Automatic annotation (TrEMBL), chain A:
This is PqqA peptide cyclase. Catalyzes the cross-linking of a glutamate residue and a tyrosine residue in the PqqA protein as part of the biosynthesis of pyrroloquinoline quinone (PQQ). Its cofactor is [4Fe-4S] cluster. Residues 5-220 form the Radical SAM core domain. It comes from Streptomyces olivochromogenes. It catalyses: [PQQ precursor protein] + S-adenosyl-L-methionine = E-Y cross-linked-[PQQ precursor protein] + 5'-deoxyadenosine + L-methionine + H(+). SUPFAM superfamilies: Radical SAM enzymes.
TrEMBL record, chain B:
Coiled coil: none annotated. The gene is pqqD. This is Coenzyme PQQ synthesis protein D. GO terms for molecular function: quinone binding. GO terms for biological process: pyrroloquinoline quinone biosynthetic process. It comes from Streptomyces olivochromogenes.
Length: 361, 84
């Protein structure tokens, strides 16, 4: 298999799990990696170099909140020097004018800003922190600096009825792109699944709105709808295939085929402190575990869609069945699909409040 | 006003030695430039006008249908918002 492994295009660099927000939908692990175990800027520099040698051309600097890293400008410069196109994925909290100027100078190419809601109070309830005005300011600064701005909205029961307003907000803030992505129920988000799952009616209404807005948009704003796999009963093409397109490096150097794969206990994920990225990508057991099609069970094995959705998400299979190698239960053909149907049908009937992480960082 | 094409600020032209090709990098997207497309984009430095780009390429690739294809290719990139 080794000889035929295509190189990865993108690296998700999770610089820290620390975050001033406490989003109910956060898909980072329940047990966060402590700040003392984070890779240093030197170690990231080495990771970027190795990644570029391997074929990576883009990196998303993410977290947590990457702005909590005081050495972020050094890290950006290291990525840029390695030849990587560098995007900052941020909540906007802590993005002041001087800070942005420093990052620009270091070679930052674009910014992706999370937005919880158009209504500041609703946003505060979802994020567990008062952050709306910081985001508004961040958006303004990014636009003033002439950097491309993407908004990223995680959809769930409490914000999906606001998609129309969210798209209007994206236009008002001068965004180039808005991504409306349904919640990924991993990590902390899994705890809040019952409170977060939208109803089928809500999803249908949002879909109609997105279609209408897309027809009206004149090309200034790119509108991306990431489908709700659970409600659509359709497996998502998770990560473009396991170990196929991109890799994630967690704050402590753990290398993962997908940001949620830390939840898979049997994965035995390698760490960049101990192994070269090239070996990790090509040879490690973790990156080969669900690569290609040989691991696939029935019904994926004989299904025409297996080259499009790659059998869906391993983390979801594990989260719902305890076995990561089963067909993603989101898929209507999956033997475990009844689990998803039950979740979707029952969640809206229960009125549950969010569980928040303790404290912020 | 004469057009002196230059890459939009969010677009980065890069040689990819691993895949042996030229790429346009932008947020959430990578465009693989096949054939000599990279050589064309590399001439879009904001100083040269389109006829100069065509002339430079005609010299470099004698016999190639650059006079037709290059302006068409450049406007296509402009349509996409990748060239200004
Ligand atoms: S911004 Fe929200 S979703 Fe992102 S890491 Fe912080 S708490 Fe989690
Ligand atoms: S059976 Fe497997 S390959 Fe087919 S649609 Fe479902 S998840 Fe995808």
């Amino acid at each position: 298999m080794t000889a035929t492994v295509d190189p990865p295009w993108a690296l998700l660099a999770e610089l820290t799990h620390g975050c001033p927000l406490r989003c109910a939908y956060c898909s980072n692990p329940v047990e966060l990696i402590s700040r003392s175990r984070e890779l240093t800027a030197e170690q990231w520099t080495d990771v970027f170099r190795q990644a570029a040698d391997l074929g990576v051309v883009q990196t998303h600097l993410s977290g947590g909140e990457p702005l909590l890293r005081r050495d972020l400008a050094r890290i950006v410069a290291a990525a840029d020097t390695a030849g990587l196109y560098t995007q900052l994925v941020t909540s906007g909290v802590g993005l002041h004018e001087r800070r942005l100027a420093e990052l620009l100078e270091a070679g930052l190419r674009c910014v992706q800003l999370s937005v919880q809601h158009t209504d500041p109070q609703a946003a505060e309830l979802i994020a567990g922190a008062r952050v709306f005005s910081a985001k508004e300011r961040a958006a303004r600064l990014v636009r003033a600096a002439g950097l491309p701005l993407g908004l990223n909205v995680v959809l769930h029961r409490a914000d999906i009825d606001a998609v129309d307003d969210l798209i209007t907000l994206a236009l008002a803030w001068g965004a180039d792109r808005i991504e409306l992505a349904h919640t990924q129920y991993y990590g902390w988000a899994a705890r809040n699944r019952t409170a977060l799952l939208p109803t089928r009616d809500q999803v249908e209404r949002a879909r109609v709105t997105v279609r209408r807005r897309r027809e009206q948009l004149t090309g200034s704003l790119e509108l991306v709808w990431v489908a709700p796999d659970l409600l659509d009963a359709t497996a998502k093409p998770c990560m473009g295939g396991w170990g196929a397109v991109s890799l994630t490096v967690a704050p402590d150097g753990t290398a993962l085929p997908c940001p949620s794969a830390a939840t898979l206990p049997a994965l035995d994920a390698p760490n960049v402190r101990a192994h070269r990225l090239d070996w990790i990508w090509r040879e490690s057991k973790a990156f080969n575990a669900y690569r290609g099609e040989t691991w696939m069970p029935d019904p994926c094995r004989g299904c025409a869609l297996r080259t499009t959705d790659f059998g869906g998400c391993r983390c979801q299979a594990y989260a719902l069945t305890g076995d990561a190698s089963r067909t993603d239960p989101a898929c209507r053909h999956a033997p475990d699909h009844h689990l998803v149907r039950a979740l979707v049908d029952e969640a809206p009937l229960r009125n549950s409040a969010y569980a928040y992480r303790e404290g912020g960082t | 006003m004469t057009w002196r094409p230059v890459l939009a600020r969010h677009v980065m032209l890069r040689r990819d030695p691993v895949r042996d090709t030229d790429l346009l990098l932008m947020p959430e997207r990578v465009v693989v430039l096949r054939g000599h497309a990279g050589s064309v984009v590399r001439l879009c430095d904001g100083r040269r006008e389109v006829p100069e780009i065509v002339a430079a390429l005609a010299e470099r690739f004698p016999g190639a249908p650059v006079a037709d294809e290059v302006p068409r290719f450049l406007s296509a990139l402009h349509e996409e918002g990748w060239l200004r």
